[in-house]
């Protein structure tokens, strides 16, 4: 699910991707709310609040929200540039490596907060979390060709509504076409993303209240572990394929 294949990705792979990455996004988003009272991935709301701060002429809040939006975009750009470079050199595990980097930064940030927490640093930490959310969303979007957006639930709900309308229309018209079947699969993928993010959000608040920044550190370590396991399985599969081909030429 974390490897970009030459063949077309299946919806099953995208659903596994949604379960892992959308759940992780929901966890981190809720933990940030518990720690700082703010959602680092809620770009629609943050943009609306930015407009409000322009009217209120609150320069400090205006600067913070502007930096948060730019950080999210910078994260998406960084992930995209990393993937372009990786694919250029035929590095099949590039998405895993991006997740390892994301998890490592989150782990270091969490450890910093465990040992040196200060409310005066909250805004800087949120900007960094916004950057990581941009990386996370860009990674899932690129892997799934836009079918799974781990943090962009507004867009996913819209896509789910469109897919549901198409499915209902096909049922009413008794249309057994391949397009209707594809819409059903896409609807399942969107619903998996939505409920994974929701479940992660519920669990994230509970875990943060239970373990504080240790829970956030565990999430960073979990992302690293997930990516490393995927890399190891990919390398084993490639090695096995090479051995089979070598035996076939003997």
TrEMBL record:
<dbReference type="Pfam" id="PF06912">
    <property type="entry name" value="DUF1275"/>
</dbReference>
<feature type="transmembrane region" description="Helical">
    <location>
        <begin position="150"/>
        <end position="171"/>
    </location>
</feature>
<dbReference type="InterPro" id="IPR010699">
    <property type="entry name" value="DUF1275"/>
</dbReference>
<protein>
    <submittedName>
        <fullName>DUF1275 domain-containing protein</fullName>
    </submittedName>
</protein>
<keyword id="KW-0812">Transmembrane</keyword>
<feature type="transmembrane region" description="Helical">
    <location>
        <begin position="214"/>
        <end position="235"/>
    </location>
</feature>
<feature type="transmembrane region" description="Helical">
    <location>
        <begin position="16"/>
        <end position="42"/>
    </location>
</feature>
<keyword id="KW-1133">Transmembrane helix</keyword>
<feature type="transmembrane region" description="Helical">
    <location>
        <begin position="191"/>
        <end position="208"/>
    </location>
</feature>
<feature type="transmembrane region" description="Helical">
    <location>
        <begin position="62"/>
        <end position="83"/>
    </location>
</feature>
<keyword id="KW-0472">Membrane</keyword>
<feature type="transmembrane region" description="Helical">
    <location>
        <begin position="95"/>
        <end position="117"/>
    </location>
</feature>
């Amino acid at each position: 699910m974390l490897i970009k294949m030459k063949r077309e990705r299946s919806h099953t792979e995208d659903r596994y991707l949604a379960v892992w990455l959308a759940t992780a996004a929901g966890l981190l988003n809720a933990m940030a709310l518990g720690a700082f009272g703010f959602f680092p991935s809620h770009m629609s709301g943050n943009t609306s609040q930015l407009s409000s701060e322009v009217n209120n002429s609150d320069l400090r809040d205006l600067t913070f929200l502007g930096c948060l939006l730019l950080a999210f975009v910078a994260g998406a750009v960084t992930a995209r540039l990393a993937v372009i470079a990786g694919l250029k050199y035929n590095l099949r595990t590039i998405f895993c490596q991006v997740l390892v980097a994301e998890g490592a930064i989150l782990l270091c940030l969490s450890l910093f907060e465990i040992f040196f927490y200060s409310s005066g640093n909250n805004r800087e930490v949120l900007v960094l979390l916004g950057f990581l959310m941009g990386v996370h969303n860009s990674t899932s979007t690129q892997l799934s060709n836009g079918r799974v957006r781990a943090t962009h639930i507004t867009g996913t709900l819209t896509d789910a509504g469109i897919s549901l309308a198409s499915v209902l229309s096909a049922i009413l018209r008794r249309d057994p076409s391949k397009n209707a079947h594809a819409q059903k699969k896409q609807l399942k993928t969107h619903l998996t993303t939505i409920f994974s993010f929701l479940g992660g959000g519920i669990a994230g608040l509970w875990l943060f209240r239970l373990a504080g920044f240790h829970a956030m550190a565990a999430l960073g370590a979990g992302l690293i572990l997930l990516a490393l396991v995927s890399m190891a399985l990919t390398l084993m599969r490639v090695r096995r394929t090479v051995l089979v081909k070598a035996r076939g030429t003997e």
